[in-house]
Amino acid sequence: MCCLKAIFLCLIVVVKIQFCKPTSPTESPSDKSILLDFPDDTLQLILIGKRINNLKRGDIKGFKNLFDIELCNNKIENIEPGTFDILPKLERMNLSENSLTKVENGVFNNLNIRILDLSWNKISVIEETALNDMPELTSLYLGNNEITKWNPNWFQRTPKLIRLVFEHNNLNSLPENAFQNIESTRTDNKTDMCWLDFSYNQITELHPKTFAGVKYAEGINFKNNSISDLPPGLFSSLEKTSLIWFWYNQITCLSDEFLESLPPTLSDNIELDFNPWNCSCVEKSHDWSKAHGKTLSVLITYFDCVVDPLLKDGDAE
């Protein structure tokens, strides 16, 4: 949704310099006429709910100090490659709540933006190099779209990218080396940790090497998918993470091979609540956790299993 911050800033602009002039229901201004209302020294270009349909090369130019573009809640369907070129100080771009169906090559490449929000569109296609060569990008929001396939070749030469939000899409799997271009470009002394959100998709399968090369993760969210199996070695490269969620999936059991492949510091941080657990497997996992002095978070909700409390206090019913 349009960020509150953007709305607040828009109100300030209206009061002070009247940039966000309302459009009457009968008025149908051209896209360019709206953009021409802004002076050359504009710092923030905020046009929310202005019924802009298309953005073309040359529509946004001459703003040498522009650092923030907020064009959410319009009806943007197409953005011509090169539209945002020659904006040297641009850092943030909010294009959420529009009608974009694809992310094209040449629209965002070689920009110095740090935050790009494309959530709440109708995006089903991301061209292979469309998200490459963004040297300052740290956060990418593509939630609430219609993306069905993940391409591990995305994000080449995006060395600072640490936050990916793809929740509420139609992904059904994540392939081998899904994040190879994120971790492979990170320097050894990088302290930032990744945040990966794939909740509310249709994921049924994770490749054993989906996270190959990923060493640090603040959080990995797979809530509300249809995952039934966690393959051995899935998280073997992780050295540090705060939390991994698998709530509301279809997991009935954790294999011995998966448990043995967990890095020593990781098992305490996996949340497996609200899955249709097999009772005998819960007992087996309980035995494993006792033998290794580990804790796994499993909330039994679909039936009663007569076992000692498996895991964290209060998690077993």
UniProtKB/TrEMBL annotation:
Keywords in alphabetical order: Leucine-rich repeat, Repeat, Signal
Keyword hit for DNA repair: no
GO cellular component: extracellular space
Span of the signal peptide: 1-22
Matching InterPro entries: Leu-rich_rpt (IPR001611), Leu-rich_rpt_typical-subtyp (IPR003591), LRR_dom_sf (IPR032675), SLRP (IPR050333)
Keyword Membrane listed: no
Pfam families: LRR_8
Name the UniProt record assigns to this protein: Leucine-rich repeat-containing protein 15-like
Gene from which the chain derives: LOC108733370
